[in-house]
Amino acid sequence: MLTFIGLGLYDERSITLEGQDALRAADRAFAEFYTSRLLGATVADLERAHGIEIEVRERAGVERDPEDILAAAETDDVVFLTAGDTMISTTHVDLRLRAHERGIETRVIHGVTAQTATSSLTGLQNYRFGKATTLPFPYAHGADGLPSSVTETIDENRARDLHTVVYLDIKVGDETENRRADSPEPEGDEYMTADVGASLLAEEYPDLTGVVVARAGSPDPLVEAGRLADLATREFGDPLHLLVIPGHLHLLEADALVELAGADRETLEIA
Fold first, then answer.
1. Where is the domain boundary, 109, 127, 149?
2. Is the separation of the CB atoms in 127 and 253 below 8 Å?
3. Residues 6+ apart with CB under 8 A from 235
4. Are 167 and 142 within one domain?
5. For residue 264, what pLDDT band results from cuts at 50, 70 and 90?
């Protein structure tokens, strides 16, 4: 049996009760934290809270060679953990399908995901979000300017009056070794912050409104709206951060951004 469990957004308490029960009952637990992670808890915190040893896998050990995970699931009750929801943004459908090919039963236990939390914190209506995109570090895509995957997603969503979630790049472990020689050399893992993301987006969209969501799921989340060029000059505290580029706003959404995110109503595009 292979059970995929979403850990939620922040710490060892963010998991659902159903997920907690499955984790504590498992024979073995695997996890990956290269696509997202819990900033309020270490692996050791998770192990202490749930009474089980957690074997963390890098990207290659999940996406290219998950043999040890699958072999264990053929005979034991195995769980696979990710931050957020295990099948939203952090997508492991390939691993699930590999398990099915080997006759391994699977199930999914959901966790709170960043996109639904973003809708809740900002007051932007969830059904008005279009396709999401990820903004990579410049050294990660190697081209000048914004990648077309980012600009095309934002432009297409705005043409349909839809909001765009822009996930900000995370590089962990040996992934940070791939940066160019002239790039900064931060210590350890690297998280793009909202001011850096806004600065990159402002090269193409300086006057568009952006909404920063920082530390969703934590005791001190932050939501702040403004022109992208202005957001690029501010600081938003500890990660994780993401940005939203709104489409034309319903009146209630505009009220929410003014009240909850400090937006200037005069700068908002209201339908």
1. 109
2. no
3. 193, 195
4. yes
5. very high
Residues 152 and 103 in one domain: no
The CATH number of whichever domain residue 30 belongs to comes to 3.40.1010.10
Question: In the prediction, which pLDDT does 89 show?
Answer: 62
**For 43-57, 61-75, 137-151, 152-166, which range has the lowest pLDDT when averaged over its residues?**
137-151
Q: What contacts 267, CB < 8 A, 6 or more positions away?
A: 209, 226, 227
Answer yes or no: do 142 and 98 share one domain. no
pLDDT at residue number 171: 85
> How far is CA 123 from each of CA 54, 80, 189, 260, 262, rounded to the nearest angstrom?
36, 32, 31, 8, 12
The span from the CA of 177 to the CA of 181, in Å, is 10
Q: Please tell me what DSSP assigns to residue 177.
A: G
C-alpha radius of gyration, the chain, whole number? 19
Verify that 48 and 93 share a domain, yes or no.
yes
CA distance 245 to 162: 9
- Asked whether residue 90 carries a pLDDT value surpassing 90, the answer given is no
Query: Side chain identity at 187, as an amino acid letter?
Result: E
Place 172 in a pLDDT band, splitting at 50, 70 and 90: confident
Beta bridge partners of 243: 166, 212
Beta-bridged to residue 251, according to DSSP, are none
**Cα 234 from Cα 203, distance rounded (Å):** 16
Burial of 97 (0-12, 13-18, 19+ CB in 10 A): exposed
CB within 8 Å of 211: residues ≥ 6 apart = 122, 124, 223, 224, 225, 243, 244, 245, 246, 257, 261, 263
